[in-house]
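Let's inspect a concrete specimen:
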Amino acid sequence: MTQRTCWRVELMTAVLPCCRRRVMTTAPPAGGGEYDHSASLLANVVCVVYDVSEPSSIEKIASKWIPLVNGHAERNYRLPIILVGNKSDLQCGSSMESILPIMNQFSEIETCVECSAKNLKNISEVFYYAQKAVLHPTAPLYDPEEKQLRPQCKKALTRIFTISDQDNNQILSDDELNYFQQSCFGNPLVPQAMEDVKMVVRKNTADGVRENGLTLNGFLFLNTLFIQRGRHETTWTILRRFGYDDTLELTDDYLYPQLRVPHDSSTELNHFGYQFLQKIFEKHDLDGDGALSPSELHSFFSVFPYTPWGAELSSTVCTADGDLLPLHGFMCQWTLVAYLDVHRCLEYLGYLGYPILCEQDSQTQAITVTREKRIDLEKGQTQRNVFLCKVIGPRGTGKSAFLRAFLGQSLEEQLRTPRAPSFYSINTVLVSGQEKHLIVSEKGKPRNLQTVI
């Protein structure tokens, strides 16, 4: 009776240049044995070692080892593989001619390194490329069979382009490219390097450069080129700078930075937040009429995964001609969000690229946390700029009409132009010569006064 033996799996900690990673090594017993599939489940990357001097060893890469590692995995969840051609000291030539067809056949193969365990040639390179496959994986970015960026990667890079296009003319100018380069890599491009980049794009795309600036297609082409040339760490640096994780989703740390709000304190946008939002408003106000049309508002929301404001917007803030959102109403809406749900406000600012465009650590720099209300009461004064007034009463007493009247809508206009209801209206009022924001909130008939206060 033949004894079934599994490969031995040993775990050790390797100190790599940028981090500590667990490196799993497997070694077969002398008499051979079966591959332990649980080993793959523990791994982030697999190095398949073959003998460069043995053609049969090369043949088994495709016929045995890769199917054993990834044979049961779905296409998008295959482990990255590094091919390691050992015993290069026994062969004068290279095995690459035989390896290239295998690399073309299996998209999960990241690279191939020939080495010699005997004289330690290229051993450190093996671990470098294994580390690179984990920290900067190709699979989430690029489909080698289709030879193009994956949809999720293209979507993320499109958002990054839109944020970086600060004047919204669909082109990255030299100044915008330099700002982008400085933000992602810490140094600007020298003029000659800038021209070289655009020359490469011109030669390879029909519409990659326009008016001496880089278009979205040109930007996507450049990132595709980086990946095809094995420089996918460049694209990963860009993605991570703009808040993306390894699955190309925005991280919680980026969208929801920690902000401590004491009990009975409130949250308001400060001058950093208002300056940023005014700049974004002007970016999308393409016709310069001081208001965002539905199409301009759609452009504004293009960097969001969903539309955050609904039809109730026109019943919440002042609008113009029914469907135009002036700067005043735009700022009021943001003031409302910052006051009612500051974490949602931080999320929205993250989508707009606030930390990158304002060169600040996080969106919390755009928020002021007020002191607690009890301190204001003790001192008999307040520094708050946003106040909440609750309107109470039974159904049918005109609370909704009162809220819309606060926005300057007469009863006749309300009857003539029905709008989606909103439980809040916000506008500015003058208090001792200073402009303050007042939020008016509609509540039903309370059971007792304490539920309102």
